[in-house]
Amino acid sequence: MKKLIIFPLLLLLAGMISCKEDEVVPEKPEAPKPTADFAFEQVDPNDPFTYSFSSNSTNYKEIRWEFGDDSVSAEENPTHTFVFSGIYNVVLRTTNEDDYWAEKELVIDINADSVVNFTATPVAGGKLKFDLVADIETDSLFWDFGNGETSTEMSPEISLDPGQFYNASLRAVTPKGSVAIANRLICDIGIVQDITLGGRYSVSRDHDGGPEHAEGSLKLIDGNPETKFLQGGYNGDLWVQIEYIDPVVAGAYTLTSANDDYSRDPKNWNLQGSNDGQNWTELDNQVDQNFEDRYQTVTYIFDNHDAYKFYRLNITANEGAGLFQCAEFQLLKLPQ
Ligand SMILES: [Ca+2]
User: Fold this and answer.
1) pLDDT band at 29, cuts 50/70/90?
2) What is the pLDDT of residue 4?
3) How far is the CA of 172 from the centre of ligand 1 (A)?
4) CATH classification of the domain holding 45
5) Where in this chain does the record put each PKD domain (predicted)?
6) How many angstroms separate the alpha carbon of residue 280 from the centre of ligand 1?
7) How far is the CA of 168 from the centre of ligand 1 (A)?
8) Are 316 and 284 in contact (CB under 8 A)?
9) Is the pLDDT assigned to residue 299 strictly greater than 50?
10) What's the pLDDT score for residue 24?
11) Does the chain have fewer CB atoms within 10 Å around its N or its C terminus?
């Protein structure tokens, strides 16, 4: 009898243990995954800095906007005003309650040149008259003519020394505080146009690493005086050429010395124009030039009223080194 009693007890215990192991704990169902999507539009045609954003996202608990200018928002459909022109990567991130997330990124390009521009027109008394050209609403203007003079007038008039170039800028502020800046090269008769990048650029012989190299020929026209084109084994036959589809009338150019080693600087050169790439007309000739400073930009103006498809700068001598270097070359069109 004793054994008969113990056996069912053991069965009962085993049954209890078994029951505990098989117990199913109901899991919380997983929330649907979030999606992120949005669209944007300019709110006012006269304010290229302000945009409204509308989210088309789903299944999220939290929403976060990053506008690419260090500002953020947790609103569903925010409106944002950028302070400066620029290219902004706007990111929308949604997160659900299980911390799954989704992102969508769109780019807003507020191009400074399309936002604000200005004209400079010769008027009586040998002066230049400046006018804002822009579709934006402005609250204030600040002109800096690059010659030490400034103005806050709508249409200021100033006199500039003939034969000199100046870096002028216009700073326009909108009623919401956004800032648009236009920079232009000017001379006494108007705005000078940089046409360096308007044609096909080539050199007679490049850096050994090619045009894309850190010191390749493209560094001569990248707008950055701190980068340079360096040619090894310089032997006086280097030329730099720009070929245009339609002939243009160039009237000036600039050269900028590089960061180091004066003996690599250009010393003698000439500029030629051509319409077939075979027959050349000399437009300017410089001998014994001397860049006394590093990063020094010198402007050369030449008398030309003819349009050419080809412009070629022949650098016939440097300051004596076996290497040639130059930081920048610009070809310019003067006001007609
Ligand atoms: Ca450069």
Assistant:
1) confident
2) 43
3) 29
4) 2.60.40.10
5) 64-96
6) 27
7) 21
8) no
9) yes
10) 66
11) N
175-185 mean pLDDT? 95
In sign, the C-alpha dihedral spanning 239, 245, 247, 253 is negative
Residue 165 shares a structural domain with residue 227:
no
Range of the domain at 168: 114-191
Cα 328 to averaged position of ligand 1 atoms, centre (Å):
5
- The residue count of the chain comes to 336
Q: According to the model, what pLDDT value does residue 22 have?
A: 60
pLDDT exceeds cutoff 70 at 9 = no
Domain finish residue from 149, 171, 191 = 191
Rounded mean pLDDT, 283-310:
96
Q: What is the pLDDT of residues 76-106, one digit of tens each?
A: 999 999 999 999 999 999 999 999 999 999 9
Residue 11 lies in a domain: no
